[in-house]
């Protein structure tokens, strides 16, 4: 979709388009309200930096839509399709899959939530290293990192919706 067409969508149409990017009502509604955007860069900058950070409840709701890293998203939803595409480049031989399973378990035991990271453009080794590093975070630092990762995923998905 071209940016001009996005700017002209009804609020309901824009919401339906944006929800697979991130299931966070406030982010979606603020992005819709900020239209029109003059450029794609303006839109993505606003989506990444112009909306207040996600609060813990928004993070929990959005994380419910994300599978564990290294696990195939189930279902036929747009979110599941996007997740499968984002994780498609991971090189998951038996060893890597086992290591990701352990990393996910350690993270979930430490933070009581799924480990979220923008997988697109990252190798399995980078993801494992990030998970290990983030295990040393305190809760507040980790919430901030999760929120940043969620925004990166949302902006990546938003960019994929728009034609150049």
From TrEMBL:
Its EC number is 4.1.1.97. Keywords: Decarboxylase, Lyase, Purine metabolism. GO terms for molecular function: 2-oxo-4-hydroxy-4-carboxy-5-ureidoimidazoline decarboxylase activity. It is an enzyme of class 4 (lyase). Residues 7-159 form the Oxo-4-hydroxy-4-carboxy-5-ureidoimidazoline decarboxylase domain. The keyword Lyase applies. It catalyses: 5-hydroxy-2-oxo-4-ureido-2,5-dihydro-1H-imidazole-5-carboxylate + H(+) = (S)-allantoin + CO2. Pathway: Purine metabolism; urate degradation; (S)-allantoin from urate: step 3/3. The keyword Lyase applies. Pfam families: OHCU_decarbox. Coiled coil: none annotated. It comes from the Bacteria. NCBIfam families: PRK13798.1, UraD_2. This is 2-oxo-4-hydroxy-4-carboxy-5-ureidoimidazoline decarboxylase. The gene is uraD.
């Amino acid at each position: 979709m071209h940016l001009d067409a996005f700017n002209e969508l009804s609020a309901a149409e824009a919401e339906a388009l944006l929800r697979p990017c991130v299931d966070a009502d406030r982010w979606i509604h603020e992005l819709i309200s900020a239209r029109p955007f003059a450029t794609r860069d303006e839109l993505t900058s606003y989506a990444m930096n112009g909306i207040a950070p996600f609060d813990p409840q928004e993070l929990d709701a959005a994380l419910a839509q994300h599978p564990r890293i290294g696990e195939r998203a189930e279902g036929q939803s747009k979110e599941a399709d996007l997740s499968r595409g984002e994780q498609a480049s991971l090189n998951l031989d038996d060893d890597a899959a086992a290591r990701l399973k352990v990393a996910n378990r350690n993270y979930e035991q430490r933070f009581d939530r799924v480990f979220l990271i923008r997988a697109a453009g990252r190798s399995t080794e980078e993801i494992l290293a990030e998970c290990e590093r983030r295990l040393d975070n305190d809760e507040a630092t980790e919430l901030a990192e999760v929120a940043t990762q969620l925004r990166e995923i949302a902006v990546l998905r938003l960019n994929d919706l728009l034609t150049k």
